[in-house]
Amino acid sequence: MTAPLRAMVLWFPDWPLRAALGGPPPHPPTALVHANTVIACTASAREHGVRAGQRRRVAQGHISSLRVLPHDVARDERAFLPVLQLIEKHAPGVALLRPGLAAVRARGISRYHGGEAEAADALIGILAEAGFPEVRVGIADGPFTAELAARGPTPRTVVPPGLAKEFLAPLPVRVLRDEQLTGLLIRLGVRTLGDFAGLDEIEVRDRFGERGARLHALAAGADSRPVVPRPPDPELVRSVEFEPALAGADQVAFAVRQTVDAVMLALADASVVCTEVRIDLVDDNGAVFSRPWLHPTCFDAADLVDRVRWQLEALGAESAKAPVDEARAFGGIVLVRIVPVAVDDAAHHQPGLFGSGTDERLHHAISRVQTMLGHEGVVTAALSGGRWLADRQVLTPWGERSTAPRDPARPWPGSLPDPLPAEVFRPPRPIGVLAPDGGTLLVDDRGALSAAPSRIDGDEVQAWAGPWPIHERRWDANGGKRGHRLQIVDGHDRAWLVFCTGDRWWAEGRYR
Where is the signal peptide (predicted)? Predict the structure, then answer.
């Protein structure tokens, strides 16, 4: 068998959680779940007994505040791509083992830095400076031993050449990640890699076949797998410079069309489509204005031109609203750079034999309306957490990723239970709620009504319920936001949700 080559493996612990939560650890107790089974969990969750492989209900039984998120393999890969690119700048020939785990040949980088330990320390420093302080590096004979070394107790572990078998010997056979084989070995009394490596190679092959022989070689430190570098990323970034600078959004959008076509051709040559793009605008003062843009399916040339125009219009509107003494230095545009951030296989976006049906027509119609009305002309609604109806509704422009600023699953004391009003007034509109004597209905500090409600908005009250107090931010110096809610049915069988602040009444929503 070919002698193992020296390999350097970089391991980013809990990478799926890093990709899902963003930022380095520590993270709050969180678990990623697939098929109702925990795939990964944070260190803070493990402290309470949560483990990968547990059923969801068992994990939540260990800690009631455990946050549960779905596991997304594609998200892990997208988030790890910039890390691979960073590693490749300092250690060419990086190979992706899986998201959160990469390998490089140790020979070249160790010669450059004067030794394997020095090379590992250099990479750890570079990655820590880039925001990845949790990285661990292992160097050994072959990727298998190097990966186990990276999972050691120290940030950097170097197994000297020829000592892989001794390093692996005390480790349990479960590190081979073959449940069927390792379960049988444990029942036979073979519990460590040293015990497994001590078995006769021919007998192992006869009993367990080629798969067993391969794992037997790994246990003996004879990992002959080469580190195959990943193919280089296609060059998809395109930019255009203007001399003199262009000031109008329509001027820049027209001038950038040829550059957009070049981006689309580069994507087509790589057989991919763009689902997220970053547009960089550089003005004649040297300021850079960057913004990422998402698309519900994939960008075409017209979509990219629209995003350039919308970004310029937003910058112009922001500069116009700023006070004179705080106005941003926004001059004419001298450079536009289009950077595809997330791409997908073009085959996943090909229409079917008879077209894509309703979804395709709907997307085309909505995108057309958005082109005419602007970026925020078409929005989608998402549910957020909050006590007031306006806080629970988040409107996101079509194509953007909807993110709720407040978790709707958390408890919100004082919030309205289902069913919620079908119509929400943003902002709440003033409304008259009168007592039988014709005066304004009042609520005292104890939450008691001055009288039964008689009329609302000039109409007779048929039924009512409440009041229910709501008080946010009690610690606020200005008193926070407080009020008392009522549900009222008027003479036309319309149900209103109203609230009182001081001596004024406001309509928060209306049931239909």
Answer: none
